[in-house]
Amino acid sequence: MSENQNENQNKLGDTSSDVTVPSETGTAVGPAERFQDPGVPAHKARLTDTDPRAAKRAERTVTFLFVLSILGTIGSIVAYVMIPPEGTTSSVRLSTLLIGLGLAVSLLGIGIAGIHWAKALMGDREFVQERHTLATQGEDREAAVNDLNEGLADSGVVGRRGMLKGAFFGALALFPLAIAVPLIGSVGGDWNISKFKHTMWKRGMRLAIDPSGRPIKATDVTVGSVFHVVPETTEEFRATHEWITEKSKAVVLMVRLNPEDLQTDQSPEGEDWSYEGIVAYSKICTHVGCPVALYEQQTHHLLCPCHQSTFDIADSAKVVFGPANRRLPQLPITVDDEGYLVAQDDFAEPIGPSFWERLK
Fold it and tell me: What pLDDT digit, counting tens, does each position of 39-94 carry?
């Protein structure tokens, strides 16, 4: 290939702005002639631009929304202080409901006010700023400051809308308190980690169906059946907030297998922990604490729906798949004189995922 051909090919591949293209008349056309600047579209005036009364209404609306946000923040703090989540289940629900409503009003007030402010009051004209090299001379700095002041004045934050400015900064300043106050109030909470090591199961406590609380006889459990189990308690205790806390740790999944399918039904010390093929294991996954309750009868596998950890019920609930690294703790069970299934004792190890100071 000759030098002239190489030179022509390089010219064809050049896409820089300096290249000129022949026009239909045969004259060279540069970039400025080939690409016309469409310019800025004509500004369409809004109602608030032409009607002072509409602008005033929009200002009052935005101010009202910011004030509503302030009231929502104050309401959530009052709900946290006046209705502590303790005692009964109803008080926990009421406290959570009121705090959540306060936070929702506070956030929605700020969000909707900001959108309405931008659409109705802030300037919506399009401007063209020519590119140039910004220097550090005093004239350029002064021009930049003037541009910022013009934009600030155009947004309506200061000057003629002082009430709107106060509501805006008040809402933004108070909202973090709705999150900070509960956090500060929880700093001095209960940090007794020994509560993680034990549940309410005790020797002789009957196994009951969740959520009815009806005790279970061994004769009610057929081979292949699955029961969701909690400790038997009084109806009054099940209506308290303490029951919610204790139940979350003590929930059990009970299954009856053919005794010959059990690869082990004894504790490490050789004690019998099952009764005629009936085994009971904690429902709290040892990975991150999700409820394990998907039982596959043919394989005797128990699946955690969160991260697919799989446990073998027939072999002391050991892990056969997934991220969990410990088996499910087994609840040792037997029957009482009336044939009801009862716990021999609490779990031999802490339930659920790992935590600090755990020995096992």
Answer: 778 888 888 888 989 999 999 999 999 999 999 999 999 998 888 766 666 777 88
User: Binning pLDDT at 50, 70 and 90, where does residue 22 land?
Assistant: low
d(CA 189, CA 182): 11
**Domain positions in the chain:** 3-32, 48-124+140-183, 195-343
d(CA 266, CA 274): 7
Give mean pLDDT, residues 87-106: 85
CA–CA distance, 102 with 174 (Å, rounded to integer): 12
- For residues 136 and 286, the model is more confident at 286
Query: Cα separation of 163 and 158, whole Å?
Result: 9
The CATH T-level fold of domain 195-343 is Rieske Iron-sulfur Protein (2.102.10)
Residue 256 backbone phi and psi in degrees, to 5: -110, 125
Measured between alpha carbons, how far is 68 from 254 in angstroms, rounded to an integer? 52
Torsion sign, CA atoms 12, 18, 21, 26 = negative
